[in-house]
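Thread title: Can someone regenerate the structure for this chain?

I was given the following input by a collaborator and told the matching structure tokens would be attached. They weren't. Posting the sequence so someone can regenerate them.
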Amino acid sequence: MFKNKLFAIGGTLMLSVSFAAAQTATQTTTSTTVTKTVQNADGTYSVIQYPVGKEVMVDLTPGTTLNGAKGRARVMRTGDVTSVNLDLSGLPADASSYYVYAVDPAGKVTLLGPANISNGISQTTFTTPMDKFMLVLSPNEGLNAIDNDTMVTFRSSVPKGYAVVQNMATTPTDGMEKQAAGSQAVSSTYEVPLLGVPALEKGETEIRINFSGDLQGLKGKAYLNNSKQGVTKIKMRFDDMKMAPKDRRYVLWAVSPTKEYTKIGQVINTGTRQESEIRGETALKDFGLFVTVEEKDVPQPTSTIYSTFTLTR
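Best answer:
Regenerated them for you:
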């Protein structure tokens, strides 16, 4: 069994939940080793990669206490955005909402948002930049890990024809530690100051960022909206995009006090627009914000080019 910990942020993204390490079968062709991953027999690990331009129907397995409950998600990836359309029915009469989480191959938990319930039915749509994840629903808000003690109401199963993405934990091979297939290593340690979110006044707070090095000349501002529900909405604006390197992804990350990262969103600098904007939210109680410049889509920060935000008081 493995115990998922939120690696980043959040959000930072979840029946019987027992996350065992994915079983692997290895075949060798000439000098290349190919690792294939299969779902555990009990179905406890169901991260898959969603293709672009194809709607995927995902059955949601209810917990043992939800007799008669049904769940399904229609997942569609378009460009850099994945939409998740939930359809739940047969829920308990006293249920008001379940919180929907996406769990990536590293076990990082990202809150997509609440699925509000009325008369035992819930139909809710979420969006996320993630393309590899499983869905977990829980009555508990603010989860940063999924383990045997987590209260879970639904968990996604693996659609027919799709392979489980291997857990990103490292396993020893030939006396060396090798990273599992499909994982993305963090290339450096990011020292990012926390913003002191609990001390902020309710409503909108402006924070600024100063870019340096290869990003000299790029300007940015972010706005935090600290709600009473414990969710912080984040909006970031980039100005003078033409001053920054083209064909790069500018990714906004939140980092928790325990150095766990959550991808808030990203923009791609095509070199033709002057301004751009990222919007997202996190359930983290406190966090820092920073930007990396990535060559491709990544689930965790890898770039050594980054800048941090500071509060304007």
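The CA atoms of residues 106 and 168 lie 5 Å apart.
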